[in-house]
Design a protein that fits this description.
Blueprint: H1 2-14, E1 22-23, E2 44-52, H2 59-70, H3 74-77, E3 80-86, H4 91-104, H5 106-110, E4 114-118, H6 127-133, H7 140-154, E5 158-164, E6 168-170, H8 174-184, E7 192-194, E8 203-206, H9 210-219, H10 226-236, E9 243-244, E10 250-252, E11 256-258, E12 264-266, E13 280-284, E14 305-310, E15 315-324, E16 326-333, E17 346-355, E18 360-369, E19 374-378, H11 382-385, E20 388-395, E21 399-412, H12 415-422
Parallel strand pairs: 2-3, 2-5, 3-4, 7-9
Antiparallel strand pairs: 1-4, 5-8, 6-10, 7-8, 11-12, 13-15, 14-21, 15-20, 16-19, 16-21, 17-18, 17-20
Helix pairs in contact: 1-9, 7-9
Length: 423
């Protein structure tokens, strides 16, 4: 173990051959710390780091950034820096992504709260070497190097560093939650706190450990995927047991479940007759209470969303990634056994014609009212069920006390035929 740590430190010299990522010209960060200033009063408390490459859905990174800033209050944002490594050699993609981000997030960029960096292609080992070194044809070597550059750049931006991915949404006030957990751990030394049990999502480091982590990733980038290297790094720095922090604060934008190996996999359909719940994002203006979050109402497992003291007009809205043709909608509130904590007066609306970023539907149609906290509505009129982009549960009368939104289930028209044909 000590030998591997020694090798990691020796790698500091070897990694000099890799050029450091540079801030994109239009996004040079506001100066926070310099080598000549031991004290930096403008140092952020937390840096959130994201490495992003090309994706089938180019909006994923934008939605993640929207979620980050939306989930943070103005006070919290003053303690936050978001660092994005645009990690792809395609200059066309790079320009388009920079343009989108600069259009949507110019206030955060000007305030120094959002920084974009890019490592040029010649900073990486030759592609042929990476292909030869990758095990079983899995190209995680590039991902490890991408993140080595990310954490290296982040080392001097803040006191703590949080690693996220580019396809997630964040719990409201996640910064306050993390700050509280760090305070409670003051008397207990730690290397890594984990605010998600999925892959390398939601991992919190001390920024002082980031240079060693960068060199560690550059030394072993061809050995293992990132989500397996990080636990190894933790044990090398003498934290033998993972510290899992609940409630989990970060989730993928799609429905996922995790297993004991902390790898995420798409949630499996219950059966061909069960609900489909196409991918989407969940937004609400209801209070978040205890450990259950809004998106848990849209999963196909037994999790649920718990809130309290809702007011007339409050809503929980599912915004689908792509419009869907729905044949049935089911909404279940309250406990299964005794029916407590139901929504006493509520209705479900279907929305169409999304606009903006983040998207919102510009028109809604009433689908039905909840009866004893439940609604199970077949959609017979195709004009209502086709091209649906939003499903909105609306509170029609204020009520005091707890509320459980157990499930929002969606069935797509002809989805079973499509699944059967693909299987």
């Amino acid at each position: 173990t000590q030998g591997e740590l020694g090798e990691g430190r020796k790698a500091q010299g070897r990694s000099q051959q890799h050029r450091s990522p540079q801030p994109l010209a239009a996004f040079t960060p506001s100066p926070r710390c310099t080598d000549s200033s031991p004290v930096c009063p403008s140092l952020a408390w937390l840096t959130v780091g994201i490495s992003s490459a090309t994706q089938p859905d180019q909006r994923n990174l934008l939605y993640t950034l929207v979620s980050l800033f939306r989930a943070s209050s103005k006070t919290e944002q003053k303690r936050l820096t978001v660092l994005v490594h645009l990690a792809h050699s395609d200059l066309t993609w790079l320009r388009e992504t920079v343009l989108r981000i600069s259009t949507l997030f110019s206030p955060q960029i000007l305030a120094g709260q959002l920084l974009l960096i890019h490592a040029p292609s010649d900073a990486y080992p030759p592609l042929e070497d990476m292909r030869k070194e990758a095990h079983h044809g899995e190209f995680y070597s590039r991902q490890n190097i991408d993140h080595a550059f990310l954490v290296s750049f982040a080392a001097r931006l803040s006191e703590y560093f949080l690693l996220l991915e580019d396809n997630v949404f964040c719990a409201p006030s996640f910064i306050t939650h993390i700050h509280w957990k760090v305070d409670t751990m003051k008397s207990d030394p730690w290397v890594l706190l984990e605010f998600s049990n999925m892959g390398f999502l939601g991992k919190l480091f001390h920024s002082k450990d980031l240079p060693l982590l960068a060199h560690f990733l550059l030394l072993f980038y061809k050995e293992k995927p990132l989500d397996r290297l990080i636990p190894h790094f933790r044990t090398l720095l003498a934290q033998k047991t993972p510290i899992i922090c609940r409630p989990f604060l970060f989730y993928y934008r799609f429905s996922y479940i995790s297993n004991d190996t902390q790898k995420a996999s798409p949630i499996q359909k219950k059966n061909l007759d069960g609900p489909h719940n196409p991918p989407g994002a969940i937004f609400t203006d209801m209070k978040v209470f205890d450990v259950h979050f809004p998106w848990e109402a849209y999963t196909l497992d037994e999790s649920f969303f718990w809130t309290h003291n809702v007011s007339a007009g409050n809503h929980l809205t599912v915004i689908l990634n792509h419009p869907a043709n729905l044949s049935r909608v089911q909404v279940l509130t309250g406990t299964i056994v005794d029916g407590k904590y139901t929504l006493e007066k509520g209705e479900v609306e279907l929305g169409y014609d999304p606009e903006g970023m983040p998207q919102y539907c510009t028109s809604f149609t009433l689908l039905g009212h909840l009866l004893e906290g439940q609604m199970n509505q077949e959609i017979f009129l195709k004009s209502i069920g086709y091209n649906v982009s939003c499903i909105r549960l609306v509170v029609k009368a204020s009520q005091v006390g707890g509320l459980i939104i157990r499930h929002i289930y969606l069935w797509e028209e002809n989805a079973n035929d499509t699944e059967a044909a693909q299987s």
